[in-house]
Amino acid sequence: MSLGSAFAIYFVIWWVTLFAVLPFGVKTQGEAGEVVPGAPASAPAKVDIVRIFVRNTIVASIVFAALYWLMEYSGLSILDIPLPS
């Protein structure tokens, strides 16, 4: 895998895992008891975006490492995925 491909694949994995990691540990305004007028009670009370990005980077790095190992060392390739004909 070339360096450019690795960066592109990592970026896509990072972006997709962001949406999976984003809701973890978020406390809603309804749970906090401080609903801002005009906002739904399900809106986040406080967002710590740096913590979310760090968690996401860790998860994305693990997923990328597993994918890299599968592609480089296990002998599997994209051509091994069965496609409908």
Task: Explain how this protein is built.
4% of the residues are buried. The protein has 85 residues and is mostly helical. 55% of the residues lie in helices and 0% in strands. It has helices spanning 3-21, 29-32, 49-72. It is elongated, with a radius of gyration of 19 Å. The protein has one domain. The longest helix has 24 residues, at 49-72.
**Number of continuous helical runs:** 3
The poorly predicted ranges are none
Helix content: 55-70%
Derived from helix and strand composition plus strand pairing, the structural class reads mainly alpha
Average pLDDT works out at: 88
Strand content: under 5%
Number of domains: 1
Computed Rg: 19 Å
What is the topological layout?
Blueprint: H1 3-21, H2 29-32, H3 49-72
Summarize the model shown.
The two termini are 28 Å apart.
Notable traits:
single chain, elongated, 55% helix, mainly alpha, 85 residues
